[in-house]
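[stage:ingest] chain + small molecule (CA2)
[stage:ingest] validated
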Amino acid sequence: MSKPVLILNGPNLNKLGTRQPEIYGHATLKDVEEMCQKRAEVRGLEISFHQSNSEAEIIDWIHDGIEGCSGIIINPAAFTHTSVAILDALNIISQPIIELHISNPHKRESFRRVSYITYAATASICGLGVNGYPIAVDAMADMLDAKRP
Ligand code: CA2
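[stage:predict] done
[stage:export] C-alpha cells:
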C-alpha cells in the first residue's frame, strides 16, 4: 500500500471563496479538496488534505510526512514569503515537493516575488487558479510513476 500525498494549505486559505474572487475565484477550500480527491482517485493516489493558520502545525504535518507520505503539495500562502522554518522542515523531505499558488505571486506586490519554499520545491505551479490543485495531483502522480521500478 503506497503512502498518501500530503496536500498542505497555509493561513487564511480556509476563507477561500469568501473574498477577492478576482484573484482567487469563487471555489471554497472544500471544493478544492473534492477536486483533488477526484483527480487522485483517477490516478490511483491517496491524499491527505489539510489547512492550518499555524506555522507550527504545518511543520508538524511535514515532520509526519518524513516517513509517512509519498510526496507533498503545499500552498504555504503568506508563509511562502516569510518562513525559513517551513523551508527547513521541507528540506528534511526526500520525496517530491510541489509548491502551489492559486494566483501568480510574480505579478503582484514585490514582496510576493520572494519564496523561501522554492529552495526546497521539486516544481512550482502558480497562476492557474484553483485548477492548479488537480494539475499538481496529476504532476505528482507522474513523478511518482516515473520513480517506480
Ligand atoms: O496565490 C496563492 O495561492 C497564495 O499562496 C495565497 C496567499 C498569498 O499570501 C500568497 O502570496 C499567494 C493568500 C491566501 C489568502 O487566502 C484567501 C483567499 C481568498 C479569500 C480569503 C483568503
